[in-house]
Amino acid sequence: METFYLVVFAVQLLAVAALEFRRGSKDRIVATSAFNAFKNNYLVVYSLMMAGDWLQGPYVYFLYSHYGFQKGDIGRLFIAGFGSSMLFGTIVGSLADKYGRKRASITYCITYILSCFTKHSPQFQVLMVGRILGGIATSLLFSAFESWLVAEHFKRGFEEQWLSMTFSKAIFLGNGLVAILSGLVANSLVGSLNLGPVAPFDAASCVLAIGMAVIMFTWAENYGDPTESKTLLTQFKVAGSAIASDEKIALLGAIQSLFEGSMYTFVFLWTPALSPNDQEIPHGFIFATFMLASMFGSSLTSKLMARGRVEGYMQIVFLVSAAALFLPVLVGFMTESAGEATDSISTSGRIQMLGFCVFEACVGIFWPSIMKMRSQYIPEESRSTIMNFFRIPLNIFVCVVLYNVSAFPITFMFGMCSIFLVMAAVLQNRLMVVSEKDKAKTKPVEAWPEKEHETEAEPLNV
């Protein structure tokens, strides 16, 4: 393995360690033992669920290439996944409010395990079924678990500030440490042990089965508002009405779609961007490096939350993200692609990888921040339904991009993502303005010393 990869990984590891070790006792929130037990149980489950997803991540594109599929066919497989998430996933995810978030979480495990099994077949149709199942699972992953956590947190009477602590810790572990370990394990299974590109998917199935067992025996069931969720159509109407009547919810959905759409496009493009001439690159190790950058971002989030409003600093995060994904465009203009394949990453590839690490750090900040805003603005009775509604424009956006992936150069795709991230920053500014106006309308006249009660003024324990 090239020294470049090791240096980038080591620098980021030192940065994360420095952030964590600088936390003193004054930075820690004192919580009850009951909350700590609840939080730790959720973190175990969430980490296992994310491990099941992250183990597959580095080798999805590579597996399809291994089976002999070209970029156009691979794009269609990805489109099937996002299209499934948009159509079937929205319905299945929304049913979580009516039939229970615990059941939805178990359904996620079963669906994703079946999706992993399909990876053993090189047949396009079988792989297509696997992508459809994976799309449904993805919708459940990003709605059912968070909805269960928020409902159960307040049901048990825990303080609102502690919810942010759980979010930050979950992203630090599930989207950081677990993702890094998953990438390294996947790289070892395929590279060191020579078990083939399907091995990470088998490992993911085992991890998901363990997580499902923990959910079945330790989680209580919770629902949305039973009076508003008698039918699926009612759920859709309530969710649609909430989005249409509250500008903050609509803005939040647009922001999420723009950022996640750019993020998922990046997931599809980073492999060909770093190896345009089919250079041999350590996919699993690069993936782990990206996740370490995300871990750095999530570790930084608690400090950002302690020093200002989420709606404020996220504007800067979106602009930095836009600059990071615009880097391949600049590199494309300044360098000419070599006509021959080499055995190592090119200079332009190294520059892009550094920019991608910056983007992943922004992703690490985004997740706990968007979770915090969703917990503030989305009503509990339709939480899962609204969160899945947010994913409809996201999936349409990604499907359109992937459908045209062969028609445009990679630099065009990255440039488009940069534009959408700038738009997200503009909408984030609008969300801050609207939320401040609403607060001013509802703020009591005698409440000028309210600063004492600002929960975000205290650092979080992550």
Automatic annotation (TrEMBL):
Pfam (any one): MFS_5
Record keyword Cell division present: no
Q: Where in the cell is it found?
A: Cell membrane
A single GO cellular-component term from the record reads: plasma membrane
Could you state one GO biological process linked to this protein? Answer: monoatomic ion transport
Q: Does the keyword Transmembrane apply?
A: yes
Q: How does it sit in the membrane?
A: Multi-pass membrane protein
Residue spans making up a coiled coil are none
Under SUPFAM superfamilies, the record lists:
MFS general substrate transporter (SSF103473)
Leader peptide range in chain numbering? 1-18
Entry keywords, A to Z: Cell membrane, Ion transport, Membrane, Signal, Transmembrane, Transmembrane helix, Transport
- Residues passing through the membrane, by range: 42-64, 76-96, 172-193, 199-220, 249-269, 281-300, 312-331, 351-368, 389-406
Task: Give one GO term, molecular function aspect.
Answer: molybdate ion transmembrane transporter activity
In UniProt terms, what function does this protein have? Mediates high-affinity intracellular uptake of the rare oligo-element molybdenum.
The name this protein goes by in its record: Molybdate-anion transporter
Q: What organism does the record attribute this protein to?
A: Selaginella moellendorffii
